[in-house]
Specification:
Elements (H helix, E strand, L loop, with lengths): L3 H4 L2 E6 L6 H12 L2 E4 H11 L2 H12 L5 H13 L4 E5 L5 H14 L2 E8 L2 H9 L1 E4 L5 E3 L18 E2 L6 H15 L2 H8 L2 E5 L4 H16 L4
Parallel strand pairs: 1-3, 1-4, 2-3, 4-8
Antiparallel strand pairs: 5-6, 5-7
Helix pairs in contact: 3-4, 5-6, 7-8
This protein binds adenosine-5'-diphosphate (ADP) and zinc ion.
The site of zinc ion has 8 residues, from loops.
Subcellular location: Cytoplasm
Family: Belongs to the adenylate kinase family.
Organism: candidate division TA06 bacterium ADurb.Bin417
Amino acid sequence: MKSDSAASGVVVVFFGPPGVGKGTVATRLAEELKYHFISSGDLLRANVKEGTELGREARSHMDSGGLVPDQLVTRMVLKSLDSLSGGIFLDGFPRTQVQAEELESYLRGRGWRLQVIDLTADDRFLMKRLVERIICRSCGAIYHRTNLPPRVEGTCDHCGGALYQRDDDRPDVVARRLEVYHQQSAPLREHYRRQGVMLTLSGEKPLEETLAAVRAALIGRNGAPE
Ligand code: ADP
Ligand code: ZN
């Protein structure tokens, strides 16, 4: 339990249903604790925007609230990990058993540790949160019209970028995303619980409280990476 965490890498998976706050918590703490931040959803949206082949294949799945095929997402995410070292926060990946196994074999290959922060909330709470969510087009910072508004309407506090609402934050698509979470992703919690690498926290608490709990879990046990 000593200094091995800084030398070898650690991947912290932020797991949970859409809207639970994975991205918000992870981006805030990544900046503060100097972890890299990788979001499968952001990578996919960037591909859609740039019109890459991956983006074209992913688009219809994303628009309907379904999952992008495992192989496409896995290849994309693992490739983005290749050049990184130290500590990495992963948001939105893995979401299926196949993705989890691919990630674990990748981590074994690099001799890296896995830690999972599992955020939970009930569906009605998530629905309310998602339909009011707004996001910075430039830096990806996340706001909420009521709970976490930007200082200046329509403008990012961090970088001054324009804020927008995601296409898939419409109520009908949100309902589908929640259903997909329960069917395809939630079973992974059992997989991680058995490995003893998962910390479960309520995502319904005030943000500062969740940040403090995750911070304590990361620093308290293992120290922040270099
Ligand atoms: P959220 O967690 O709020 O639903 P994300 O930005 O993580 O949003 O994902 C948006 C969409 O991108 C998902 O609905 C899905 O279509 C696709 N996606 C993201 N990550 C994955 C993944 N690991 N596996 C499959 N599809 C994914
Ligand atoms: Zn911004």
